[in-house]
Specification:
By secondary structure, the protein is mainly α. It is built from 22 helices and 5 strands. A hairpin with a 2-residue loop joins strand 4 and strand 5.
Amino acid sequence: MNMKRDSQEMQIFLLAYLTAKMANNSQKFEVGVEGCILSVMEEEEQLCKEDREKNKQLDDQLDLQVRALTPVADAVKQFTEKLQAFCHRSRHPRHELPVKNFFIEGDRIMFLGFPSSRGSFRVGGAVIAGQSPDRSDSAVLGGAWLDQKLPQTVKQHWRTLYSISHSRRRGQPVERDFRQHHNQGVWREVQEERRQESIPRGVCLSMCPIRELQDREAQNLLHRFEVLSGTERERWPRADPSGVVKEYARPAAGKDSTRPSDLRPPAVLLKTVFYLVDNIAASPTLRPWTEVYDFVFDRLRSVRQDMIIQRVSGADCVAVLERTVRFLIYASYRLCGEPLRLYDPRINDTHLQESLSWLLECYTSGKHPNQEEFQALGLLYNLGSSRATQHTMELPERIRSSPVMHLALSVSRAFMERNPVRLLRLAHSLDFLQSCALHRHLETCRRDLLLIYSHGHSSKNCRFPLHKLAHILALDVPLTNQLCQAHGVEVRGDYVVFSKTSFTEPEAGKLQCAHFHDLVDRKQRDLTVGSIIHGCT
């Protein structure tokens, strides 16, 4: 009996042991599987992130290639047309013999067919009745009588022949004069007409071509800002015709991007930009703003693509580029410090530099009311750039002497002289958008200030007031304390102790630029996004 009981207890013990062992192994297996899944998900997310970055870089490179090759394609097309015309003339020759010698002997009035006071004037086989004036023959040939009696075409050809005959008398080469006078102007007109005909002109009067709208609606590729209200929860949301905007499409082989029905004329492009600014970027209900930025950035890129294809210039081009530059400068400030997957400052900077360069090139022809503003923005955004400084020095005196340009030049000079105290003092005089353009240099400026003070006030007995340093840095006291600690500068209560040996560079990511925007934030006040982008500040 005891043996039987011991056997049962042993079996129960073994069963409990095996159960515990299985539970322990299952737990370890679950932990291992979860770790593998997390690592795979992280790798997949990293690959997706790298893929998106590569696609964006490829898009930028292709944009540059399209912009660089568009003039070459037009030149090749013109050359092809000229070659075809030359081959056609070679197969079907129609030569015109040049005028070698032109002499008028005897009475020129009789030669022209005026034998009496009433006669006829013969040109190319046609007979034109007219009155012979009671003047000398030279007055008839070049005088006011021709202006009154003959058609415009006949008068032009007659004056040409008249000038050629006198050139022959003076010993000048008649053939060369005739060809230059007759062919030069005509050739220029033909070339200009061919150039204008080779440039595609858009005929789409809506913000999005009908074909693209239908394709994106059928493929469920509409952005949530473009969906018709009330259909958001449907399986296939419908498009809002008044809210769909043509998206940017990367050029591809076999895809015709010059179809007139897919291109918007300049007036429609400007209307599209106004819609993006007023209804999307400035909307208080659309959130988050990173998504708003991504949508507006892509649609503005499509607008510039249409402008490049159509070679748009003039007032509409300037108006579009001015709002684009303001939007990108404001976005560089507002989205500073956002995760890279939501906002890439390098891509934003690339498109901002391209748009700003295009805009400044448009300013070279004619007068524009906002030229001083954007010349100053370009200089403030590119502080320390020798190219930007040289461009500013080559501007006319009336632009360089304007108050806004004088202030921007003073800031640029302080930056190049490494005078951060003067630069920060001048920064208080900048308006909001100018401060947005300058804000990416403020971190470097404050770092240089602390480095200079660490060498200039390096002493164990020297105490620098913390509130005074905060005023110079244009920060509040807690942020100044945080900035000093990040650079190894010792803070003792309400004083700062500088030492040239203790200054260090902050660790990567320790200082968030968005936390040091007090200088810019104070200037925004009640300004709306729409008023900032439209320049109504």
